[in-house]
Design a protein that fits this description.
alpha+beta; two-stranded parallel ribbon; 2 strands; 17% helix
Length: 71
């Protein structure tokens, strides 16, 4: 993968919040979340400012889905 956790002690047991500007396919957030979970993060959540209308894929983290609209 593209992402790598170089020091798992920094994330082990922690609740991590990923922040991204826009979700199109969700691949970036999914890949980053998978690496963090594999490194021992207790949970990984994500927040974005916007999502692409073309995006049909929904982001799932720990088998729950959250979405909201500002407008």
């Amino acid at each position: 993968g593209v992402y790598k956790c170089t020091d798992s002690e920094l994330v082990r047991g922690k609740c991590i919040l990923l922040v991204d500007d826009i979700v199109t396919t969700g691949a970036t957030l999914s890949s980053a979340a998978a690496v963090l979970k594999a490194a021992g993060a207790a949970s990984v959540e994500a927040v974005t400012v916007a999502r692409s209308e073309k995006s049909a894929k929904k982001i799932q983290t720990d088998k729950k889905e959250h979405s909201f609209s500002l407008f």
